[in-house]
């Protein structure tokens, strides 16, 4: 479990002025790792992870502007789709 820096996630795409949707590429993430997305969002509402070892799409818990990688991920790669309020 670690607080991840920019070497573990990259914003691939985003859209929205008031509300925002963002897509992030994840690299080498494991269950319990956290990401701080406060540079892109003022509040997160929903997030979904599609990883290489996570079985199907997994809902991700959000807290303020942070997310936690769900159980099942282990040195995983994948994509994170996030929806919330723009910063």
Q: DSSP strand (E) fraction?
A: over 45%
Q: How far is the first residue's CA from the last residue's CA?
A: 27 Å
Helix content: under 10%
String of helices and strands: EEEEEEEE
Q: What overall form do the CA principal axes indicate?
A: globular
Structural class by sheet pairing and helices: mainly beta
User: How do the strands of the widest beta sheet line up side by side?
Assistant: 1-2-8-4-5
Radius of gyration (Å) = 12 Å
* Overall average residue pLDDT: 92
Biggest sheet, in brief? Answer: 5 strands, antiparallel
Discrete helix count: 0
Total tally of structural domains: 1
Unreliable stretches: none
**Quaternary class:** single chain
Annotation, overall tally of beta strands: 8
Explain how this protein is built.
The chain is an all-beta fold and 87 residues long. The protein has one domain. 0% of the residues lie in helices and 60% in strands. The protein has no helices and eight strands. The protein has strands spanning 9-15, 19-29, 34-36, 41-51, 57-59, 61-63, 66-68, 76-86. The strands form two sheets. Strands 1-2-8-4-5 form a five-stranded antiparallel β-sheet, with no helix packed on it. The protein has a three-stranded antiparallel β-sheet with strand order 3-7-6, with no helix packed on it. A hairpin with a 3-residue loop joins β1 and β2. It is globular. The protein starts with 8 loop residues before the first strand and ends with a strand. The relative contact order is 0.32. The mean pLDDT is 92.
